[in-house]
Write a structure and sequence with these properties.
315 residues, Arc Repressor Mutant, subunit A, D-Maltodextrin-Binding Protein, domain 2, five-stranded mixed sheet, rod-shaped
Amino acid sequence: MDMDKVELKLLHCLVALVEEASVTRAAIRMDLSQPRMSNSLSRLRELFDDPLLVRSGQHMVATSAAQEIAERVRAGLEEIAGAVSNRRNFDPATSRRSYIAMMSDYVAVLLFPQFLQRVRRLAPGVQVSLHQIGHDRIQSYLEEGACDFAVGAFDRPDPSLRIRPCFADGVACLVSRSHPTIQKKLTLDSFVSAGHVLMANQSNSFSTADVMCDRQLHALGKTRTVSCRAPSAYTLARIVAQTDLIGLLPKRLAQDYATQLPLQCLEAPLDFVPLEVSIIWHERSQRDPGHRWVRDHFRQVAQVMASSSSPAPFA
């Protein structure tokens, strides 16, 4: 079969001819003239190498091959129509789509439960899976379709990626409440001389707060002692709570952990610029209505959080 000769409208004509068993009725159904429908029947007979419609007494009937072909073509046309409809119209109440989101512990702890609860309420059939972010590979993940969107603090993403801001946060230093030398205030000397816990993922990619810290210390001609690397923010907080090590986290998350664990949340003795947390996605998903619905609702959850829970000032 020469697929170049197969047109979508020709396949619709095939279904109409088989279901109506009449060139005249099929022409009326397809809003075509009878000669054009007869021409379509001739093309279909040549295409499938089958008469498709044969005379039986005073009527036309579809051949067995025509009935089988029409059944499969009908199913294919319904699939195509469904794909086009879903592409143009996303109904959250009935959608069964799945999405993969990548974000750091920080963003996941602050926002993902509220976001997921909203999705479950408005789009109960939609599934959103959460994966831990790897900043060093986020572009390839988005390009390859391994994730649908990512949320974090990103530095000049590739032009093929779309980005929208979600909220801003500061940086704080966590210190154990029973720390032997640091209580209520952190000086630059005590900050540098203390042992530090860094947050690093499996590919040894460090948190934005730690990267900014080391840049500033380098500019001041100073370095810090890294005693431990933790795979997550919660692990970092637990280590700090039970040792004399200190660690940096985004301020909202640090304050949250300080209410749960025996921790002090102190101002770091450096001039940190605000952490700009954004959502990014690949250009190919820009016009997808389902994708847009998911990312818009995530941003709404983030903005509600940001407006209702500004980080408390340091004591």
